[in-house]
Inverse folding.
């Protein structure tokens, strides 16, 4: 499979470096993406960073973003907070 075809399609998975120390929650840091082979027998991986030493590497399916709806809600909420503080006009 050529890399040209792979990079034109959207990745189906994200690659994360997962670290955990003691009682802390696991920290997921995105370090790349994965595309399935046409035959379904493997993946091509592209990394934008290397995992930390001792970290687990985890593949997770890509989920649709709700950025537009959440973005508007966050902005409106922040605007209301600023108005209450007298910071926005």
């Amino acid at each position: 499979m050529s890399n040209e075809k792979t990079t034109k399609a959207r990745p189906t998975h994200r690659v994360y470096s997962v670290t955990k120390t003691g009682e802390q929650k696991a920290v997921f840091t995105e370090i790349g993406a994965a595309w399935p082979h046409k035959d379904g027998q493997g993946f091509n991986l592209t990394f934008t960073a290397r995992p930390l030493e001792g970290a687990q590497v985890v593949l997770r399916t890509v989920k649709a973003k709700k950025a537009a709806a959440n973005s508007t809600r966050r902005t409106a909420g922040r605007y209301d907070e600023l108005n209450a503080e007298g910071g926005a006009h």
